[in-house]
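Per reviewer request, we include the raw input and output of the structure prediction for the construct analysed in the revised manuscript.
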Amino acid sequence: MQTSTETRAPRIAAPLLVLVMSLSACGGGGGGSAGPADIPSASGRALATVLPLSTQTTGDAANVLPIAVGRASKVNLPMASVTLCAPGTADCQTIDNVLVDTGSIGLRIAASALTGPALATQADASGAVIGECSQFADGYAWGSVKTADVKLAGETAASLSVQVIGDGSVGAPPAACASTGRAKDVVRDLGANGILGLGAFRHDCGTACEQSSTMGIYYACTASGCRSTSRAAALQVTNPVTRFAANNNGLVVQLPAVPTTGAARVDGSLVFGIGTQTNNTLGGASVFALSTLTGGMMTFYKGQALDHSFLDTGSNALFFSDSSFPPCGNTLGNGFYCAAASQSLTATIQGINGVNANVSFSVANADALLATGASAFSNIAAPVWSSRTFDWGLPFFFGRRVFVAIEDATVPGAGNGPFVAF
């Protein structure tokens, strides 16, 4: 998911995915996606527990949440289990197969997956219920804003604002929302029961939605319809890490390396906090400061200065523009690049603090990779929607320990976020 600005635009965008269906054609890139073959698109029902993360060990620390890549017929989708409770109660439900996304902010759950706790829809001072229009790159998701206690491993974000996509309690989406594109459903479009947005910012819209009632993100809804409204940052859909009692300044994504032919399943972890426990110290990692407005940094690739670049677990490929790579045709790898032969490449990542690092990566033939039946690949790439962007998607994270520090939060020995480090 792409991160946008705190003061001028909301931080809601679609994960950039090319979802490949087993033995069939797939959707296009640039923010588009196709309905996964194992999810009936007519119903948008919740996914079965294909990755039983809630039964895995969380290691020896309460700040470690297991993640896994390996949903059948899906490419590079890191999933976690999330527990939601009615605030202050033991009325809880654990939801598996939630997409881990460091490129967006906040928890968004499909209404079809939320069958347990009775979560109250938020309302404004006049009693109008609050809805949200999540504006994606190629459409929108409409739903209510509810309050829940969110539990991730042994950490709890109490009374957190979350979006419930497809919740009919706020009525039909307003025309201004529906006009932004086609309606999207996380289950149907992503093959996930929700999106766990753990990017480098606190709120999904921030000052923009505090100061303006015309952003078209938050709505106050009554029986007569919905109107765009402002929303205090504390009531916006919020990064759950910022609400933990401890280990709340960021997180670490840890995924092992995968073979060049891919892997059927990869197990890793999210470690909450940076420099707060012995298991989340920066060590010798280099710190790359991010723009406080856009969350972006610079990538230099083949003579291009790509100033809208970012690291993003929610993108399932390396997304960049390179005319030397032919796109796959109407084949198994449709939407990805189909390199004639695997190529080793180098790009330079630079933070706004001037720190830079050369990053080696490779691009292979997506048709050949996907024919293996694997689900996790470090060498799969696709065209990007913007010539100024290099989207370092999930392939970048394999074999690395990547830190994401949250805006204004202090990291011992490294100063304040937002930054990434590896």
